[in-house]
Design a protein that fits this description.
Keywords: Isomerase. This protein is α/β, with parallel strands linked by helices. It folds into 2 domains: 180 residues, Rossmann fold, CATH 3.40.50.2000; 155 residues, Rossmann fold. It is 46% helix and 14% strand. The strands form 2 sheets. It has a 6-stranded parallel beta sheet, with helices on both faces. Strand 10, helix 13 and strand 11 form a beta-alpha-beta unit. The model has no long low-confidence stretch (mean pLDDT 93).
């Protein structure tokens, strides 16, 4: 009998990172969209990009609520859904409000919870994502850790050793599958009017950067001082913050509409440097072999920093960090380095663990 596995996703990164798991699960997968990201530019284009039909969306009115409202509404709605259409296992990914609510709803109903990308820790409880990670870690039955360091965090927190598995991160295969071929990358770069190795690609979306007008302006000023043209695809939150604060965008920084995943990767592959506050970008640059300035107070992905791909800094340190990453010979060394996040087979390993959790034998 084919198992029924609910795969909960609510944001753009979850769509990208869970696509390899959904593909590996085949007919067992039942993707559910919570509506946490409701903008079509952050959802529909990404479902299409990974070749996934738009999932069932049993919840309404989730997008746009504050964090407490989102988690409460999703927890109630998913509990009712799982009760009426009970799956054999529930898969959640990362540290979003959707993952938190999905994991709790399944746990309270006695449904096995599989946490993909488990064990990340920033040790900064002011980050909403860190609290989500801690909650999910407390209720998950199977922890799929991307790295040995992530697994160690879980073991130190008391997770049963038999429940912790180092699988690698699905971002590796997701990036390799979505990266356009060289001629298409060149066409994308030409369409955006940039010259390979002659521009910076930046993304800004975290509240710590968008919700503080002074910090947002300082970050824009830093981007303008890098000495290269900067492409800045705008997240809806960032666009709203720019409009609300009247922040001045330097002439060398060109804001664009959000881009889909293959387009972003094509632009990232041609950039000389990336500047971002995204967690996923910290992983993607290690697959692409590119240097990254991470503009955040803390990171839950020290592997990218430890491997030399990334430097963590605040807005005032962006230019110094860029100089370190672009020192002679270093970009070339990064281009030859392997990713610390796995070998590109995480989705297959995770699917096997999911089927075991669903008490269905894995067929060889």
């Amino acid at each position: 009998m084919t198992p029924r596995v609910a795969v909960v996703m609510g944001t753009r990164p979850e769509i990208i990172k869970l696509a390899p798991v959904v593909a590996a699960l085949g007919p067992a997968a039942r993707p559910l969209a919570t509506g946490q990201h409701w903008d079509a530019a952050l959802t529909d284009v990404f479902f299409a990009g990974v070749g996934m039909p738009r999932p069932l969306q049993p919840l309404r009115g989730i997008g746009g609520r504050d964090r407490a409202g989102q988690v409460a509404a999703m927890l109630t709605g998913l509990t009712e859904w799982f009760r009426s259409d009970r799956p054999d296992a529930v898969v959640v990914q990362g540290d979003t409000n959707s993952a938190n609510a999905g994991a709790q709803a399944a746990h309270h109903l006695g449904i096995p919870v599989v946490h993909v990308e488990a064990g990340l820790r920033s040790h900064d409880r002011s980050m909403p994502e860190e609290v989500n990670r801690l909650v999910i870690g407390a209720v998950a039955d199977v922890h799929c850790a991307a790295t040995a360091g992530n697994a160690e965090h879980l073991l130190r927190a008391g997770a049963p050793p038999e429940a912790v598995h180092v699988t690698g991160n699905t971002i590796v295969e997701a990036t390799l599958r979505a990266l356009p071929a060289a001629p298409l990358r060149a066409a994308v770069q030409e369409a955006y009017g940039v010259v390979p190795d002659g521009y910076v690609l930046a993304t800004v979306h975290r509240p710590e950067n968008t919700d503080d007008p002074a910090r947002l302006q300082a970050l824009l000023r830093a981007l303008g001082g890098l000495g290269l043209p900067v492409l800045l695809p705008l997240h809806p939150r960032t666009r709203a913050a720019l409009a609300a604060t009247g922040a001045v965008v330097p002439p060398s920084v060109r804001c664009t509409a959000p881009v889909d995943h293959p387009t972003f990767l094509a632009l990232a592959a041609g950039a000389r440097l990336l500047v971002s506050d995204s967690g996923g970008v910290q992983e993607e640059v290690t697959v692409l072999g590119k240097p990254l300035v991470v503009v955040r107070r803390s990171t839950e992905r020290p592997e990218a920093v430890d491997a030399g791909f990334a430097v963590l800094t605040g807005p005032d340190g962006v230019q110094d960090a860029a100089a370190r990453l672009l020192r002679p010979g270093w970009p070339e060394q990064l281009a030859r380095s392997s990713s610390p996040f796995g070998d590109g087979h995480a989705g297959e390993r995770i699917a096997a663990l999911v089927l075991t959790a669903a008490r269905v034998p894995v067929l060889g």
